[in-house]
Amino acid sequence: MPHSHQILVGDCIEMMRTLPDNSVDSVVTDPPYGLSFMGKKWDYDVPATGVWAECLRVLKPGGHLLAFAGTRTQHRMAVRIEDAGFEIRDMIAWVYGSGFPKSHNLDGEHVGWGTALKPALEPITVARKPFAGTVAANVQAHGTGALHIDACRVSWPDGKVPEIGTPGWGGPAKKLNAIPGQAGSTVERNAPCKLGRWPANLIHDGSSEAIAAFPDAPGQLAAASTSDTQRAVQNCYGNMKRGRGTEASADSANSGVVGFQMKIGARRLDSGSAARFFYCAKASRKDRNEGLLSSDAPAVAKDATMRDCETAEWSTRNGNSHPTVKPTDLMAYLLRLVTPAGGVALDPFMGSGSTGKAAMREGFQFIGCEIDEQYAAIARARIEHEITRQQEQQAESDQLDLFGTA
Description:
By secondary structure, the protein is an alpha/beta fold. The protein has helices at residues 12-16, 49-58, 74-83, 135-142, 208-212, 255-261, 285-289, 306-311, 314-317, 328-338, 354-362, 373-405, and strands spanning 5-9, 24-29, 59-68, 87-95, 121-128, 173-176, 186-189, 202-204, 278-279, 344-347, 365-370.
């Protein structure tokens, strides 16, 4: 497992200019959002187009860029990334329930009015460096251009893989001996992937608030019509069953019958719809401070205000003084999605090193840029602590293997 990492201290454009063309497999970063967060000068604006142009240069053809943003400035972030030469592929939403509204609440006759909504998501721009030819050829040549779907699948509820033929196991269908315009073509049910569901462009923190935002999945698609006349394209909301005028409800004891008669993929009988999405909570105190000297006392109380956060003694009471730490599990998931095995991941806005820590955990190589030496030092300690832990776990595993073969 590679543990190669390089930390470059200085302006990220100047630091990236020292890197060769086409030398990086992925860019996964949490840049400034341009919101003047806590009055920080570095958060005055989103990164300039020139920053993303350097990311484009050092990326291999087909390499992906994942960049967090704020909801108010996501448009500026995406436009600058696109202006640099990237193609925008998607946007991932990280949804959470622990946001605190920074609202100016009115009083007097206007009590009940405010100026802000509660923040509950952060968008992540998904972009890719253009390449010539097919995706398959580019992956063969450079290892980049595609997403590693199987490495990021969402496990089935309770770890149970749905059986073929049960209502809505959600697997794809393919027609055998299909003749255009001819009814009765044979349909084969492909077995659902044992690794889990296909990853979505939504990630949530597993909180009750986030889960409650989604209705339960069972039977979510109703009959399109009681007519038994079938059409090739029935509607824009999914493949819905027709001719169900005399069919038992899918919520009854006859749901199995409905499952066999229904068009493939029409229902998803999960135990709660949020099970279809990857979830990751915000960074815990343990995650933030592993490898650092820190007090057991939190820097702020549970119900702290934004002013409390701004005036807290982060540097003396909390080992990691960076105000916007991303959880390692989340960065690891994103790295797996866009980085080939053993590949090099770049973070031009490294901060306290969550991306680097995640890269070490996942076996990737890492290059991080950080303009603030204080944060760079925190990142070094966190990354080196993760390397030590991985080495200890490997040594323990090797010892167990040796003992088992003795």
